[in-house]
Amino acid sequence: MNAYFSLLKAAERYMRVRKNDVHIPISFHYAMRLADAHPNADRDVVAAAIILHDIGWYSIDEDDIFKKGFQTENFLQSDVRYLHESEGVRLAGPLLRDLGYSDAFIGQVCTIIDGHDTRPFARSLEDELVRDADKLWRFTVTGVGIASGWFKQTPSHYCGRLATDVIPQLHRPESVAMAQADLAETRQMLCCDVI
Questions:
Q1: C-alpha distances in Å from residue 119, one per residue of 13, 78, 113, 131, 157
Q2: pTM above the 0.90 mark?
Q3: In this predicted model, what pLDDT tens digit does every residue of 31-66 receive, in sequence order?
Q4: What domains can be seen in the chain, in order of their start residue?
Q5: How far is residue 158's CA from residue 153's CA, in Å, rounded to a whole number?
Q6: pLDDT tens digit string along 101-146?
């Protein structure tokens, strides 16, 4: 993690929206676990992409984020979802360039950011790991506590959606195992069988 502190710090100013200052570090943890399980993946690309994947939300009105990006019927294809990806690419390029990353590296990271929520397929192993890590944080108590509010659902209902709607979207078997284990613990901690 220490190797990525300068990147985290450089991106911090873009994380003060939509609880990204919680979401991104938790997702980063999962991304590094998945990178450990896949030593053939480019760990640096995975780390940079997960740190920067949602910084584009910074450029969008917070009311629009929640009304258009989380509470519409087809929220995954909402305009603000596409906008946060393109804004993420716009912000990530100069940030990485200022830190001395190569154009080729920046291109790989931006390719993952662009479409990480809206594209129906992954373009690489690194993209799969980032997409999975982006979802895995939701299975934690913290993730359920935050995201159930975004979607205006009870934690119990949201946990049910994670099981039926999100687990099938995960790419890697390790991700599925992590999601199932975390969801079982979260359901128990939040007494989802009772309330």
A1: 26, 12, 10, 10, 26
A2: yes
A3: 999 999 999 999 999 999 999 999 999 998 777 766
A4: 2-189 (1.10.3210.10)
A5: 6
A6: 999 999 999 999 999 999 999 999 999 999 999 999 999 999 999 9
